[in-house]
Amino acid sequence: MKLTTGLEDVRGAASLCIKCGNCTYGQWPQNYPLCPIYSRDRCYTFSGGGLLYLVLALLNKKIDFNQSVADLAFTCAGCIACDRNCGIIRSQTPHVDPWDIIRLLRYEVVKRGLVPEGRVKQIYDEIKKEGYYLDGHKSPFQLPDKISSDKADTVIFAECFHIQAQSQIAESVASLLAKIGKPAALFSEKGCCGSTLYDLGFWEQLEPLVKANWTKMRALQDKKFVFINPHCQEFVVKRYPETVPESKGLKSQHISQLLADAFKDGKLKSKKTDKVKVSYHDPCYLGRGLDVYDAPREVLSFLNGVELVEMERNRENSFCCGARALGNYLPNMSEETARERIREFQATGADLLITACPYCKENFQKVMPDKDKARVKDLSELVDERT
Amino acid sequence: MVVSTKINAKERKTFCNELREAIGADKVKDDDVVLVTYASDISPVPSRKPGFVVLPENKEDVIATLKLANKYSIPVTVMAGGVSVAGYSIPSEGGIVLDLHRMDKIIEINTDSGYVVIEPGISFDKLTSALRKKGYRIAIPTAPGSSTPLGNYLGRPSNSLCNRHLDLIVDLEVVLPDGTVFSTGSSHFPNAGSSLRYGPFADLAGLYTCGYGTMGVITKATIRIYPINEANRVNIAAFDTYSDALDFVKEIINNNIPEHCIIWNWQLYEAFAVDTSVPGTEIPPMLKADPRKPPEGIPYCIVTAFLSGYEEMMVASEKVCAKVAKKHGGRTLSEKEIKELIPIPMAGWNELYAKYHQIEPTFFGLGKYMVWIMFAEPKDVKEMEKYAVGELADLGVAPVCYYSQPFDFGRSIFFRIFAFPDPRNQALIDKVGAKFNEMFNVAMDRYGAIPMRHKIQFPSLHLTGEYADVLKRIKKVLDPNNILNRDIGLFQED
């Protein structure tokens, strides 16, 4: 969906919704509830389809843009479950999924100055001022000297360090890259890839940022980009071409895939052998967004002593961590979503909750009791500890 | 315009406070962002914004809501699954939507007497999942898996997989506006379960079939379940005319061969192969062509005959199907032909019949789904098919898709035809709507056909004569303030 797409352009797609509710739950026969907002409050409005009907009501002037509309639009967690389970609305031109239309709705409310208070407003204010979002964090990421090479075929995409967890994960990634010994270059430019701006509807500031980043990335476009954050990867791979068409076809890999390859090639060896049960949480953007389900599990299978115990909802049916549910329509939406997922983790009896996205790690740790926070780890951190 | 509510703002506020106190604040929504999403569906029925959306979680919540709504004379529109293409759940302006989604429990599965007791909000998907673990199934319609058995069965639409099983509903628990709760079937006897619908008294469940929520709110239902047999097959027969296909269907049904049959026209089974969920998918030119003239090698109609039973029966039944198809000018398609001609639809039918699970039809993505449905006797429906296809062909809204199936062993035939105008072309949508209304009148006058749906989709349909008088008298007793689904088109004149 291009940034020039307007709400009227998606009327056709929204008009096809038959209110089947498939956007809220996973495939038969499990029928797992997947939409975080609908799971929280089972009212049709709080679903991908419900938000399409809200958009139609706005287009048909049955309701005006107001703060409730904005708060609801931002309460959606952006977990992509609706996109994966709706086979109907995508047929229209422009080809959009429910989550695209929700992003567009956010853009429309932001345009009208209806930015929800709290985290969203905080991010918006910084973006308005700086043109990007760092939350005061500068990228601390440095490649180990022994592998750093501008001529390397692999580029580590080291942006979006506004997430505190990303800095911690990056240390492990740097350590692992050194162990693997594969030469790598570094991409660290504006500190922000633009995915946050895109998802939150801050599109006025998005195009300049993407273009500025691409100006620097262009010279590296024949290399393979390795991402720590799946949100960055999904955005760069799938959305950059809408603004900079020449970026289409960029080779990319998530760090979990690089680690799986390293194990297979014998460049990483598991050393620790103490037994530990882990449960792996599929991040929405890595799983449903990029279809990467196997690599993290392969990595875990290479770690001696590590036993994977799946949560009931896994892979395509994974339930969101709630990190990106930033609106105020339902109180504590983000935290409650994380708590629901943690209860599912606890039911497995596993010792550690492993994920592969800094947003997930941060949000799970936020709601975990202090004594248990260390039980939430990124895959890279676990691998670094055990190799 | 129908004036749906007559209470003032102060009374509305009082009502809302009382209801919240009675059932819990989180179950009563009155925010505009919620209300507007319940105001319309995909049908051309004009939107009407409710004043409240109420989400009961049990019978007591329903009783409390109805009693208060009755006290303040606020109209109540009931919604079970809400998957509607016909305006069934569009509320009264300012009224209440009673959304039963949260009442979705399976209360009892009785494999001995062959029934399941459910709450109204349970979906086909959830129920079929639970039943298959026990080796049982229910009658499955050509409707999305997220729709509800209760809403579907009560509406009597395309109850598929049920040629032999007409009474899908056994027992209903009903709440009336004054708070009265009663059961319609055998469970009203103190020591009996829900195994029997009829006798020794009048069949009250019949009041609720095609009653569209105007006679009470159902809080519990008992529906039939059937064991999944040892073997099953989908036999495919091809015909050059609908008439031949229907004769084939009638004969094999009357000889107890198939569990279930559907006749599909060629533009529909070809449309099944178009995966509109893949961006950029183009509609093939043949689906924009005249629906009366299939391309060379494409059968005008195919019949899916679902066979189930013991393995030995499958072999014999397939032989019979081939013999009867030939007799009526058709032929059974070979495995090779099926692979070449209809691999994608066949995969869907195999899934449907092997697992008793609906495949989400992506053909809803072809455009704005608009549907016309009638029942007619076999000899009449043959002529009606030609008429309906011709009218839509002349309108230029191809693909023109239809399917048709026998009810009651082929004594009455269900015929559902649909078009997919561009959702942004309101003029064409209006034109199709007007054409459908004209076709309803012609079908009733010329073919003795009966509309499946009520006035809300067929504006010139009216309840008339002594039948209407008796029905209205019953309604007056059960719902004296006419709060139940007041604007659905049956009793709004009152």
Structure overview:
- The complex is a heterodimer of chains A (387) and B (494).
- Chain A has 387 residues and is of the alpha/beta class.
- Chain A has 17 helices and eight strands.
- Chain A has helices spanning 11-14, 36-40, 48-59, 67-75, 81-85, 98-111, 119-130, 164-180, 195-199, 206-217, 230-243, 255-264, 285-289, 294-302, 333-348, 358-367, 379-385; strands at 154-157, 185-187, 224-227, 252-254, 276-280, 306-308, 352-355, 376-378.
- In chain A, the strands form two sheets. Chain A has a four-stranded parallel sheet. Chain A has a four-stranded parallel sheet with strand order 6-5-7-8, sandwiched between helices.
- Chain A is globular and about 65 Å long.
- The model of chain A has no long low-confidence stretch (mean pLDDT 93).
- In chain B, helix 1 (9-23) packs antiparallel against helix 3 (59-72), helix 7 (242-254) crosses helix 9 (311-327) and helix 12 packs antiparallel against helix 13 (426-447).
- The longest helix of chain B is centred in the last third of the chain and has 22 residues, at 426-447.
- Chain B has 494 residues and is of the alpha+beta class.
- Chain B is globular.
- Chain B is built from 14 helices and 19 strands.
- Chain B has helices at 9-23, 32-35, 59-72, 124-132, 149-155, 205-208, 242-254, 266-271, 311-327, 335-341, 343-355, 378-395, 426-447, 465-478, and strands at residues 28-29, 52-54, 76-79, 96-99, 106-110, 115-118, 136-137, 169-175, 181-183, 217-224, 226-227, 231-239, 260-265, 301-309, 331-332, 370-376, 401-407, 412-419, 450-451.
- Chains A and B meet through helix 3 and helix 4 of A and helix 2 and helix 4 of B.
| Most extensive chain-chain interface | A-B, 42 and 55 residues
Number of helices of chain B: 14
Largest sheet of chain A: 4 strands, parallel
Termini separation of chain A comes to 42 Å
Mean pLDDT of chain A: 93
Order of helices and strands of chain A: HHHHHHHEHEHHEHEHEHHEHEHEH
Largest sheet of chain B: 8 strands, antiparallel
Unreliable spans of chain B: none
Query: What structural class do the secondary elements of chain B suggest?
Result: alpha+beta
Instruction: Tell me the number of strands of chain B.
Output: 19
Q: In percent, how helical is the residue content of chain B?
A: 25-40%
SS elements, strand count of chain A: 8
- Helix-residue proportion of chain A: 40-55%
Radius of gyration of chain B: 23 Å
Q: How many H/I helices of chain A? A: 17
The shape of chain B is globular
| Unreliable residue runs of chain A | none
Strand content of chain B: 15-25%
